[in-house]
Design brief:
The protein is α/β, with parallel strands linked by helices and about 280 residues long. The chain has two domains: about 130 residues, no CATH class; about 150 residues, Trna Endonuclease, Chain: A, domain 1 (3-Layer(aba) Sandwich), CATH 3.40.1350. A seven-stranded mixed sheet has the order 7-8-9-10-12-13-14. It starts with a helix and ends with a strand.
Length: about 280
């Protein structure tokens, strides 16, 4: 595995993704038959990925994906060494919420090393909502030009439409501006890049009927002032909120109405976070 060459001191033990997924299945109380079905759903070469115990976090990770290429230099990171728990949670969402046809298409994308990390995050909203909540993946008829919207969650008295984005361009631009100093300065990228194309996915809607927005994962902290300004510049009739988050239960919510902010924290079983922003 590349981890043995790049960061060998972080490796506490080694295994395979197949083995560690099987262990997660039994920890979750799945039967042998259920575990076998889940493992069988994961295509090769993904299911054959190597895994290792990360001594820094004491969690099992698997190696899959490709490094960033920045200025002709390969940049390695955790987008290639992802927690086994994340892909287990992804597979659980697929099993519970996607149709057979959707599962096949999604797993094919997940099997692509170049798209793996970005594809994985598409299941985060399905994982964060309560198992009893009704939700649909890749729904049509609600987006501009009949394009599919990633998630529709049926909340109390209204639906929530959610587009999921995995943004890396801000990280790449920040690395390109790195000068070799010991301390990297706060990012100076255009916050609008983080929200680009979000308002082109939705039709105008009443937020009391259809609350619309995006769930975005990002590799670096965002300037809160610039982020708020970029959000304010989006079409207010199409985009009512933006969430910055990952697999953990803390998120940063920007909403046009305070009542919607509180609603979203409850719907996605989340708490406010300052991990994703900084104040200039």
């Amino acid at each position: 595995m590349w981890i043995d060459k790049i960061l060998p001191d972080t490796v506490g033990a080694k295994g395979t993704l197949r083995e560690k997924l099987l262990s997660k299945c039994f920890e979750a109380g799945l039967s042998s038959e259920q575990a076998d079905l889940l493992i069988a759903s994961v295509p090769a070469p993904l299911i054959n990925a190597g895994a290792f115990l990360d001594k820094m976090t004491n969690q099992w990770r698997y190696e899959y994906g490709v490094p960033f290429e920045i200025g002709g230099t390969l940049v390695w990171g955790t987008h290639m060494w992802l927690p086994v728990e994340d892909i287990y949670n992804t597979l659980a969402v697929i099993r519970a919420r996607l149709s057979e046809e959707q599962s096949a298409v999604y797993l094919a994308r997940l099997n692509d090393p170049e798209r793996h990390a970005a594809t994985l995050v598409e299941m985060i909203p399905g994982h964060r909502i309560a198992s009893s909540a009704q939700a649909e993946f890749e729904v049509t008829g609600y987006g501009e030009g009949h394009r599919a919207v990633d998630w529709m969650v049926h909340g109390r008295g209204r639906k929530v439409l959610l587009e999921v984005k995995c943004r890396t361009i801000d990280f790449i631009k920040q690395m390109e501006s790195e000068t070799g100093e010991t301390e990297i300065p706060p990012p100076e990228h255009d916050a609008a890049l983080l929200l680009r194309s979000v308002d082109t996915k939705f039709l105008p809607a009443d937020p009391d009927v259809s609350l619309q927005g995006a769930f975005i994962t990002t590799h670096i902290k965002q300037n809160e002032t610039k982020l708020n300004a970029a959000f304010a510049a989006l079409d207010p009739d199409k985009v009512h909120f933006v969430l910055l988050g990952d697999w953990l239960p803390d998120v940063h919510v920007i909403a046009r109405r305070e009542i919607d902010r509180d609603y979203l924290y409850e719907l996605f079983r989340s708490v406010p976070s300052d991990r994703f922003t900084f104040k200039p």
